[in-house]
Design brief:
2 domains, 63% helix, two-stranded antiparallel sheet, single chain, 353 residues
């Protein structure tokens, strides 16, 4: 039915304009008697009220058509002009009908006169101006709200696209190194090769699943880190070690997935990995009162420096900013390089959002 297209603005027009028409028209026709005589007030209000509701329904259908035909803020003037022309013509016809009906039937003792007729037309004109102004005002407010919601939706979609793009940038170049390690294991240690493949499958299962996830809990991220570090240990042996010290109360806190993998990969990439002085990567929380996770490694200068565009750190920092989280903190001393990550309370976000 057409009534399903009625909006809140149409209901408000009914609430405001119909009483104005009822009172204004009957005061123009009957003068003070309309307010002082109960019978006149009741009967005249019923007649004009019924005609007013019919008029409102017709005008509303026209308003709906005009909103569709001339929608948007850029076509407001045209919409208002057409609405006023139609509404004034319609209410003039209704006023004339009431005037002639009252006069020919001598309804409640009414006698036709020019003053009453033109007074009623003025009331109808004012009611139409008020109705169009109310309609456009509320409609404009709805358009603004709709535009704001649409802008917010597009912004969220844009942020989600950017986030997904950043997640896609995670460079799994360790895949090739891992395959080389696996190749050597197959010939020398079949049992270890089997374990390696199992951990490697866990790593890539997590990587694939995480591309559609904004957050993961710290416990899950650490389990992934164990599998990833197993690949590194197979490749580097005792040249690289990891130490994890995280409060149990922080295990259900959230962070962007693959964050720890990026930081560990960054540590291995930019430091010498030698047996005499192993690379130690530490992952620890900062205490019960601070929702912070730090990843720190000792600095072991390489003979030949790897070119660095800091893409990994930029990726992590950008993801935090896109999700409106506090920024990460990067510190470098003569001995250590550390990155501190804010952990997100689990009651603030749902996993997968």
């Amino acid at each position: 039915m057409i009534y399903k297209h009625f909006k809140k603005i149409d209901i408000w027009t009914l609430i405001v304009i119909i009483p104005l028409l009822i009172v204004g028209l009957n005061f123009a026709f009957f003068g003070k008697r309309y307010f002082t005589d109960g019978n006149t007030f009741l009967q005249a209000s019923v007649v004009t009220g019924m005609l007013g509701i019919v008029t409102w329904q017709i005008q509303t259908l026209v308003a709906i058509y005009l909103r569709k035909r001339f929608g948007g803020a850029m076509r407001t003037t045209r919409r208002v002009i057409f609405a006023l022309i139609f509404f004034i013509l319609l209410t003039t016809a209704i006023v004339t009908l009431i005037f002639l009906g009252y006069g020919t039937t001598h309804f409640l003792g009414f006698s036709m006169n020019k003053e009453a007729y033109f007074g009623a037309l003025i009331v109808a004109f004012i009611a139409n101006l008020t109705g169009v102004a109310l309609n456009e005002g509320l409609s404009g407010s709805d358009i603004v709200k709709s535009s704001e919601l649409e802008a917010e939706r597009l912004k969220r979609e844009s942020l989600q696209t950017q986030l997904h793009s950043l997640q896609q940038q995670i460079n799994p170049h360790f895949l090739f190194n891992s395959l080389n390690s696996l190749s050597s294991l197959i010939g020398n240690n079949a049992e270890e090769a089997e374990k390696f493949v199992a951990e490697m499958s866990k790593v890539y299962r997590y990587v694939l699943r995480s591309k559609d996830t904004a957050f993961t809990d710290l416990a899950t991220e650490l389990r992934f880190t164990e599998s990833y570090f197993h690949l590194l240990k197979t490749r580097f042996g005792d040249k690289v070690n990891i130490k994890v010290s995280v409060e149990e109360s922080r295990m259900n806190y959230l962070l962007p997935p693959l964050t720890l993998q990026l930081l560990i990969e960054n540590s291995v990439k930019h430091n010498a990995v030698v047996k005499e002085n192993p690379l130690l990567i530490e992952i620890f929380t900062s205490g019960e009162n601070d929702n912070l996770l730090t990843v720190r490694n000792n600095i072991l200068a390489r003979r030949s420096k790897m070119p660095s565009n800091k893409l990994g750190l930029k990726n992590i920092d950008r993801r935090y900013k896109l999700m409106k989280l506090p920024s990460i903190t990067v510190e470098k001393t003569n001995d250590h390089f550390s990155v501190t990550l804010p952990l997100v309370r689990p009651d603030l976000f749902e996993l997968g959002n």
